[in-house]
Write a structure and sequence with these properties.
single chain, 741 residues, alpha+beta, ligand-binding face of the semaphorins, domain 2, Immunoglobulin-like, Rossmann fold, 5 domains, six-stranded mixed beta sheet, 22% helix
Length: 741
Amino acid sequence: MLKHRSSVVFVWACLLATCWAQRAEQLLAQNPCSSKTICSDCIRTAFCAWCFAPEFNGPRCFNPAVEGGTGGCDEAYIFNPDNQRTLDPMFNKELTRARGRIGAGMESSFYEESYSSSSTSIKSGSGYMAGGGAAFGENLVQIKPQRVNMKLRMNQMEKMSFSYAQAQDYPVDLYYLMDLSRSMKNDKDKLSTLGSLLSSTMRNITSNFRIGFGSFVDKLVMPYVSTVPKNLISPCDGCAAPYGFKNQMSLSNDTDFFDKAVAGADVSGNLDSPEGGFDAIMQAIVCQREIGWREKARRLLVFSTDAGFHYAGDGKLGGIVQPNDGECHMENNSYTHSTIQDYPSISQINLKVKEHGINVIFAVTSEQFKVYEQLSKNIQGSSSGVLSEDSDNVVELVREQYNKITSTVEMKHTSSDAVQLVYYSSCLGPKGNLKKTNKCDGLKVGDVVEFTAEITLKECPKDPSKWRETFTIYPVGMSESLTVELEMLCDCPCEHPGHHAYSESPLVCSGQGISACGVCVCNAGRFGKGCECSAHGGPACQCPLDETPCLAPNGKSCSGHGHCVCGQCVCDVDEDRHYTGIYCEKSPALPRKCLDFQECVLCQVHKRGRLYNPDEPKECGKCDLEPVIEEGRIEANQSMNENLCNYYDDDHCLYVYVYSYNDTEHLHIRAQKDKVCPKKVSILGIVLGVIAAIVLVGLALLMLWKMSLETILIAFVLLQGENPIYKQATSTFKNPTYAGK
């Protein structure tokens, strides 16, 4: 009955403990502030505030919305920073609203609301046009604002709105990069007659248009090109010497020169099918000065080929193992590191495209279109189109791809992993109809698109030097961007020298730490509210000085074999002794003592063992233990310092006894009368049972298989429209002598 009541009490105690634990978890989930013990951890928890008042007894980290605003702390001592966003008027210029020369024969004019117009004639080769129309090209604004300063706490989202509009008459730089292996000869000849048409087509889009031209073949090593001396001079009839990449014409508005540059560029030859186009793309992108890319312009790189491409790792075939460094290596308009560095990887190309705001258009033959279509999916802002056999559709293709690019705006950012950005926009729909997207389609020149970015600091970097970060939000393929100067609020001013709530005086925190934000930050090995406790033990750290819990039944502290520390016995340990037990009452020789008494107990109690002699059963080798033999199971009585001994004999029978010493060191032994032996198992019965089980399971599976087979056969016949139990009333027999006449 007593055991039953104890069990009930135990169950109720467990239930209450579980309920309290669940309640504690709920309270912690509702108010995670309460568990924070230092200021920096507190403010890294959303909506928590810290009280750094001296001698404050309440919880220093609290939620103002839950705990009455101040949590019992003087407002002058509360640190509760909010997200901040400030805008410099110098970097909040209005979006450009312009009217320019859109088509041939139209009046050339330019008007910009943000700036006063002035009619000046500037040299056209520098990217400006007469009449002042393009003179404002460098001042066009397509994203507003241009710079924002922010301060963010962890996990407290801040919203920021910005606008984008494609400016009319925005400058365009188009660099035509062409494969000039021999198979592209017809395409080159056709392109040389289309330069003027391409230029005039683009000038219908913008009055500020420039065009350039470059060509590529492959690396000058085997197995890409033949290294036979004569083939390095002319690899085929009428072919020029092979090369990696050449800038045939930097960006210019001289379309006549473009036609001449294309016509004057001779084709060359190589051995394998893939070309070295990635080398050329990399150099055309990163060599800003040599190519002539403008900072404020839509940058188009048209890549034309009828073959595949080599990429990172292929250079090893020619013994080139140095990775591509993504830097410009141009001298006299030629790539100098073709035989030194490997081809770039796709990810390197993508990185440089993003860094420099380049839109790549892959104009390739139909056989290669699917390859380059997949490639364009891995290069930001790129697209692909099918080039006709003689490239006569190149003008239409460029115009089509340009319209596709400019009719879409996609926002990206360069923030670290610590910062999360989520974009919302209604695009061209009703302003209130926001949807989660960073991309809008169907735009025309002058359309204004509003975006809202939800910016959240997800974590504070471990390195405090990274608590300030500058990143950009930019439209893909554009050089313009919104720059965000971010300061992460990851610690408290009162945790740094110079603040009135910070002190390194030896008079604070027991001289074992510093006082920061009202609490002690203890040195290594110290703890406690005032750093008064040592990790190495003894006073004023909630450690009881009373040795009563250490008193053994013999009245001695720790049985005389140890010392009392914080209410617990620490037993003596040296080379000769190693006492154990709650009161250090167990001797280091206890296991050996059991063996010392084993033979005598076996002989005197159980009449067995090597000391037992049937002729002299009372002698037992002169044993004088005088054990007390008891019925039933015996156990050691800890209050009497009894020690339990048990062992098994060769028949796996268990023998049990206990021994102890009284205050006069007199030995006392109690032995269990009956040994405990395992029940005998019938091996034959087990074997026969296993065999019978196997046979029965086999028969059952066989019957199940037969029944399943019959069911399947019946179902099959029924599907054929026949009844398996139906027999026709008549039978038909064929006469073998009947010939059918």
